[in-house]
Write a structure and sequence with these properties.
By secondary structure, this protein is an alpha/beta fold. Helices cover 40% and strands 11% of the residues. The protein contains 18 helices and 14 strands. The protein is globular, with a radius of gyration of 23 Å. The N and C termini lie far apart (64 Å).
């Protein structure tokens, strides 16, 4: 590769400053440390970088030995999307569960405890919360990551989450602006389009983002979605009308704007990552997320050089790049000041109404238990059960590394539990489950059964044969409750599985 610039000039440093790249390994590669020394101002951690909290702490210390004010970002929503607990499942139930409970003090407490754990590991920017409104039940990428489908509910919990997280000294990044909830396409794969009018956008999608701005969100993440009512030609991430005209000027937002990952197909497949990155900064973005799928030095150099070239050929104003870099450095200054000040004591539960909010408490399990909805009844489980997991393709944001379901927790409570996995390719899944279960009580675990016709058909066939079957829905509970006992957990985090397993083991009864 031909390097277009030296590693010391201001333009190069500004181009590096706006990148938020990922990397491979549980220690920092030499190339990352070298780029940090040259001006890289942020790095992003993913599940591949995490083994244990103490290892993450050592990793962030290694990075900051090169640059004290380095921003370390992570995508730790809790619930289904977890990086710190990628191999065990999250200790926090996720947004839909919190929205279902609808206790803003609880949401604030959960976010502050999550932030405390991130801060202890040396992370200071969290790409959360999702402020999307799950107005389209067929949405394949948001679902339980949203607080719900009600605009005002999403707005008040978005604000509470931001307050709790930032009280811990960790900057919140509210996403996915201007709203990814009313889509039926995953922007990891293609370009989603939302065809609603301006009145609907202002009355629905933008309301939680207004609440986030009022709550002081330090960062906002753009969405790779096309909204013709705002810009008929360009998706949000590369649209000056959306990032500068709407977010900056109309909504008055003055914090950091970061893009969703530029290697996602909605951008990479339309513009290519280099051109897409230049267009994003020119449109008003201040930082470029990259590294979920591309995590190498070559990618960083390609993006750095694309930005420098764009400035030199007049496509990207130098002052726009300088302004973006300055905003990154300003956020880094806030995080350093927040660390020096320490967590805000008692901020999560100012009214003292939420039990178990002390540092290190099991507030996530408290929330998960409150978020369970029980329909029907069943006798206590006195013998080991058979758990049938009905699965579909993994949401890329969630990933397939993170375990979900009730098997581990149910086996802890009733040792000897057995399990099997079934998908849309399984021939006659109901018959297969009955054969595998034998005399055992059957527990079927599904996620978003309403979006997968084969799941509904398999459930109906299974219940016709074994009407005492327990059904656990760990996605959005949009389908009708079925089964002798139906448990809706509003999320698939480890603590959601624990809460469901407790009900199954002791015998459930409708609330």
């Amino acid at each position: 590769m031909t390097t277009l610039t030296s590693a010391t000039d201001t333009l190069t440093r500004d181009a590096l400053a706006v990148l938020q790249p990922g990397f491979t390994g549980t220690t920092a590669p030499d190339w990352v440390l070298r780029r940090v020394g040259e001006g890289l101002a942020s790095v992003a951690l993913f599940g591949r970088n995490v083994q244990a909290p103490e290892q993450v702490t050592a990793l962030t210390a290694q990075l900051r030995a090169e640059r004290e004010d380095l921003l370390v970002a992570i995508d730790e929503e809790g619930g289904d999307v977890t990086r710190l607990e990628v191999r065990t499942g999250s200790s926090f139930p996720g947004n839909l569960a919190l929205g279902y409970v609808d206790d803003v003090d609880l949401t604030r407490a959960v976010a502050q405890e999550l932030g405390r754990r991130l801060a202890e590991c040396g992370v200071d920017l969290n790409w959360a919360p999702s402020a999307d409104i799950n107005s389209n039940p067929d949405n394949p990428v948001i679902g339980v990551r949203a607080f719900g489908a009600d605009t005002q509910l999403v707005a008040r919990h978005t604000a509470a989450y931001i307050e709790g997280l930032q009280a811990s000294g960790v900057a919140a990044c509210t996403k996915h602006f201007p709203g990814h909830g009313d889509t039926a396409v995953d922007s990891h794969h293609a370009m989603p389009r939302i065809d609603v009018d301006l009145e609907t956008l202002h009355a629905r999608e933008l309301v939680p983002f207004r609440a986030a701005i009022e709550a002081g969100s330090k960062c906002v993440m753009s969405a790779h979605i096309l909204l013709p009512a705002l810009d008929a030609d360009r998706p949000g991430t590369v649209s000056p009308r959306i990032l500068t005209g709407l977010l900056r000027e109309e909504l008055g937002y003055d914090g950091l704007i970061v893009t969703d990952a530029v290697e996602m197909r909605a951008i990479a497949g339309t513009y290519g990552i280099e051109r897409g990155s230049v267009l994003a900064i020119a449109a008003g973005a201040d930082a470029l997320c990259v590294g979920g799928g591309l995590e190498d030095d070559g990618t960083v150099l390609r993006l750095r050089d694309a930005l420098v070239t764009a400035v030199r050929n007049g496509e990207l104003p130098e002052e726009r790049l300088a302004d973006a870099a300055a905003r990154v450095r300003a956020l880094a200054s806030w995080t350093r000041a927040a660390k020096r000040a320490g967590p805000e004591p008692g901020a999560a539960a100012r009214e003292g109404t939420v039990p178990g909010t002390a540092a290190g408490s099991g507030i996530g399990l408290v929330a998960a238990r409150r978020a369970v909805r029980v329909t029907g009844s069943a006798e206590p489980l006195t013998a080991p059960a058979y758990v049938a997991s009905f699965t579909s393709a993994s949401n890329i944001a969630v990933g397939d590394e993170t375990p979900w379901g009730v098997v581990a927790e149910l086996d802890r409570l009733v040792p000897g539990t057995r399990t099997g996995t079934y998908d849309g390719e399984t021939e006659e899944p109901a018959a297969a489950v009955v054969r595998a279960a034998g005399e055992r009580r059957i527990v079927v675990v599904v996620r978003d059964a309403h979006r997968h016709a084969w799941m509904g058909e398999a459930l109906d066939a299974l219940l016709a044969r074994r009407p005492d079957t327990v059904v656990v829905e760990m996605g959005v509970p949009q389908a009708p409750a079925r089964g002798a006992l139906h448990i809706a957990t509003h999320g698939a985090a480890r603590v959601c599985g624990q809460a469901a397993a407790e009900i199954i083991a002791r015998g459930g009864a409708e609330d």
